[in-house]
Design goal:
Layout: H1 3-17, H2 19-24, H3 26-29, H4 32-41, E1 48-52, H5 58-64, E2 69-74, H6 77-89, E3 95-99, E4 112-118, H7 127-137, E5 138-150, H8 155-168, H9 178-187, E6 190-203, H10 204-209, H11 215-226, H12 230-236, E7 239-241, E8 244-259
Parallel strand pairs: 1-2, 1-4, 2-3, 4-5
Antiparallel strand pairs: 5-8, 6-8, 7-8
Protein name: Class I SAM-dependent methyltransferase
Domain Methyltransferase type: 50-146
GO biological process, one term: methylation
Length: 264
């Protein structure tokens, strides 16, 4: 099995085990970015929208009442099944669910008026392939709304952040920096028009338990944070009480891109 295939198998294993947790996760189910993405996209009722790596289906459900059809994809079938149950319970019936690899989408060129991808791309082993696929399936002048955790531009801090993320979630590949994402988008003809950069604070016990497979793994992540350098701790703005990590924060980037006409 090639390395990328091994990574994707790890993603499927991880999300199959935790599908219901992601549907119920307040980090994913809540957030002003869900309302903001509607304001930024300005969806129209005749649109057909693709939500890549839908996870718990929160973006798909948000869009469903504002467009004709949402196609929600995910690499993991149990994740799609959990999202479908939750969305149908909320009356979102104009969503179809397709098991698909974000780096090899099973759709024709220029099939969608808009594409979204929220808090998922750090699991993709080939981000460039993902971006090319977005540009391929998006209609000219179509919108791409992207949200993900991002690494700092500083190489040492970026390495630290990604190491902690991978310790906590073995399906994590890499958080890219904003500069890396912008370069990839521009090469694919996806030109940014709006962006937001924000700090996202987590309750550490809940964050680490969501994907860790054992108490030993949770403890190892906590010890790695407690033994971090002062500079690393300052970047995460860690809150430590009685020798235990209570909260920390990471960076998130949200951007709206338009596909240039003439680019495929």
């Amino acid at each position: 099995m090639e390395k990328n295939d091994q990574v994707k198998q790890a993603v499927q294993d991880q999300f199959a085990r935790n599908a219901e947790r992601y549907v119920l996760s307040q980090t994913h189910a809540k957030g002003d970015d869900l309302d903001l993405l509607l304001d930024w996209l300005g969806p129209e009722m005749e649109w057909v929208v693709l939500d890549i790596a839908t996870g718990g289906g929160h973006v798909a459900r948000k869009l469903a009442s504002r467009v004709e059809l949402v196609v929600a994809t995910d690499l993991t079938r149990p994740m799609l099944e959990a999202a479908s149950r939750a969305n149908r319970a909320q009356g979102a019936d104009n969503i179809v669910y397709v098991q698909a690899d974000a780096e090899a989408l099973p759709f024709l060129d220029e099939s969608f008026d808009a594409v979204t991808c929220r808090i998922a791309a750090h699991h993709f082993p080939d981000p460039e392939a993902f971006v090319r696929e977005v540009a391929r399936v998006l209609r000219p002048d179509g919108s791409f709304l992207f949200i993900d955790n991002v690494a700092p531009e500083d190489e040492e801090l970026a390495g630290f952040v990604n190491r902690i993320e991978n310790m906590r979630d073995t399906s994590h590949v890499r958080c890219l920096s904003v500069a890396e994402w912008k370069s990839a988008f521009e090469r694919a003809g996806l030109i940014g028009s709006m962006e937001r950069y924000r700090k996202k604070r987590f309750d550490f016990p809940d964050w680490v338990a969501r994907t860790a497979e054992s108490k030993e793994q949770e403890e190892a992540v906590e010890q790695a944070l407690l033994s971090a350098t002062d500079r690393q701790k300052a970047y995460l703005e860690m809150n430590v009480e009685n020798g235990r990590v209570r909260t920390h924060q990471i960076d998130e980037w949200m951007v709206l891109c338009r596909k240039q006409r003439g680019d495929r």
